[in-house]
Amino acid sequence: MVRIPLALALTCGLAVAGTAFAGGHAGNPAVSARKAHMQLYSFNLGILGAMAKGETEYNADAAAAAASNLAAVASLNQSAYWVPGTSSDDLPGESRAKPEIWQAGSTAAEIGMSFAEAAAALAAVAGDGKDAMAGAMGAVGKGCGDCHKAYRAPRN
Question: Is the pTM of this model over 0.85?
Answer without folding.
Answer: no
